[in-house]
Structures are given as structure tokens and as C-alpha cells.
Amino acid sequence: MLKCFANTERREYTISENAAMKETSSDDIFDVIIIGAGIMGSCAAYEAAKLGKKVLLLEQFDLLHHLGSSHGESRTIRATYSAPHYPPMVIESSRLWEEAQAESGYRVLTKTTQFDIGPADNRSLQSIITNCSTNSLALKVFDNSPNNFPALFGFR
User: Fold this and answer.
1) Among 27, 76, 83, 144, which residue has the least CB neighbours within 10 Å?
2) Gene3D superfamilies in the record, alphabetically (predicted)?
């Protein structure tokens, strides 16, 4: 079970501990309370509810507001990171996105190709290549031959 409360008005309530205890019913007791219904809070609430937890999700603004970091029409989700712990998390995240889309019947994610570029001896780029290989992520490594980038060097 998941309940979500969102308000645009800030309200302050002062209830003594005794009054709160007297007015509390089993409907008001939650296993998990999450503050913030942005992408992280909403995903956490969704996963907790799937585990059978009674979840309360609190948001200070209206749902679908434009005041957070997750509004707008597009986002980038990439698995190409130099730090080795990120690609497995992105792979799991992709699986969860696919699952959520299948359960909702609504497609929100369109995958596109990621393009990382840098000098061949760049340590960060080399780490990205290693991490892609380690995590079985498809990649293609180009050298600086004009044949690899006809749009940049003119068509040949």
C-alpha cells in the first residue's frame, strides 16, 4: 500500500505526544515514510510497496511540479563511467525501468547510443572501455582515422 500526500501550502502542526498517540489508528502507522516524491523518493516508495510495505510518501509541492531536478522532457541515462561501481547499478536501473514500463503499460524511456570521446591515452576513457568490457556492455572503439567519422571530415 502506498499513500502520497503533496501540498503547495506549507503548514505547521503542533500536536502533543499524548494527543498524537490518542488520535493514531492502525491506518496511520507505516512501515516506511519517505520525504520527497522526486525520482529517487518515488522509486524507493514504489520498490518498498512492491515488497508489501505500507509506505507514506510525502512531497512539499504538487506532484509533477517543475521545481526539482527531474522535470522536463529528457534525461540521459548512461552506463559509461570510469568508476567501476556505476555500470552495474545502471544495468540494474535499466532492468527496473523496463519492469516498471511493462507493469504500467506506459513507455517513458527511449534508449539511444552513448558516445564518449577523448585522447586514446586518457585514463578516464580507458577506464570506461574496461568497465564496458567487464560488464558486457556493447562498445566500439574508433581510432582517429577520417574513415571512422565521415561527417566530421567530409564524406569519402
Assistant:
1) 76
2) D-Amino Acid Oxidase, subunit A, domain 2 (3.30.9.10), FAD/NAD(P)-binding domain (3.50.50.60)
